[in-house]
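Why run this: before we spend reagent on co-expression, it is cheaper to look at a predicted model of the complex and decide which construct boundaries make sense. The entries below are exactly what would go into the expression plan.
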Amino acid sequence: MTLLAVAVGGRGVVDPEEPVLRADDEALLRGRAAFETIRVYAGKPFKLAEHLDRLAGSAAMIGLPEVNRLELEALAEQALDAAAAPDAVLRLYWTPTPASIALVSALADHYDDLRARGQKLISLRGVRAEEPWLLPGVKSTSYAANMAAEAEAKRQGADDALFIDREGTVLEGPTTNVWWRRDRTLYTPSLDLGILAGVTRATVLALAGDSAYAVEEGHYGLTALLAADEAFTSSSVREVMPVTEVDGVPLTRGPAADELQAALRSAAGATVPG
Ligand SMILES: Cc1ncc(COP(=O)(O)O)c(C=O)c1O
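The model came back. C-alpha cells follow.
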C-alpha cells in the first residue's frame, strides 16, 4: 500500500510515517476495531454515507463506543485534501480507545489489467457466520484469515479465493461479493449467509434493474456458479471484476460484468469510463 495521507482524531493531518495508535489499543492487540475501505473518484469518496452506516453497525456489533460520524467525515476530508489524488482509496478506522483514523492510499494499478483479463478463483471452505458471536456482516480489522485465503489462492496459481461453506454453498470472496448470470437473471448469495453487505453489492443490485436484469438472492451451491453464463465479483476498490475460471473450470466472459462496471463508473461520476 502506498500511503498518501493520514488524518487522526484530535490531531488532524499527520506525517504518514508517524505512529497513530496506542500500544494498548485492542485494534492491535485483538483485531477488535471496525474499518471501511472506500473508493475515491475525482477526489470524492463514493457512497460515504453508506460506508459510515456500515462502520456504525460493525462498531456496535463489536461493542465499540458509538462511531463519531462527524469526526470521521472531517478526517476523511482533511486526508483527501492532503492527498490531492483524484483516484484513490480511503480507509476509515474506528478503534476501542477510541481512535479514529482516515488513511488515503494510491489505487493499485493492476486492477484494470485484471479486469481486462478476468480473474481465476479457487474455492476454499470458509466460515458461515450464523451466530452473532461469529460477527456476521461485520467489517472488523480481524482480516488475517481473509488475507491468508487470498495468499492460498495465489499459491495455487489463482488470483483470489471464493469462500464456500461445509455444504458447498457459495458465500463471498475474502474482500468481494460474488455474482453470476444465467440468461437475464443475476444470482448472488443472500445476506442471511452471514456475508458482508457490500456497498457495491447494493449498488449493483440497483443498477441491475436499470440494465433490465432480474436479480435473485439466495443459497446456491458451487455447481450453480460453475454452470453460469458468466460470473463476476464486486467490491469498492476492485469494482465489478469478471471471473473467467473457478477451480480450473473456465467461464465465458459475458456482457453483464462490462455493462455493470460501466454503470458503476457512471453512477460514481468517474472521469474514466468503465
Ligand atoms: C468479506 C468482504 N465481502 C465483500 C466485500 C465488498 O464490500 P464493498 O462492496 O462494500 O467494498 C468486502 C470489502 O472489503 C469484504 O471484505
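The mean pLDDT is 96. Residues 37, 172, 175-177, 196, 198-201, 234-236 surround pyridoxal-5'-phosphate (CB under 6 Å). Bring this page to Monday's planning discussion.
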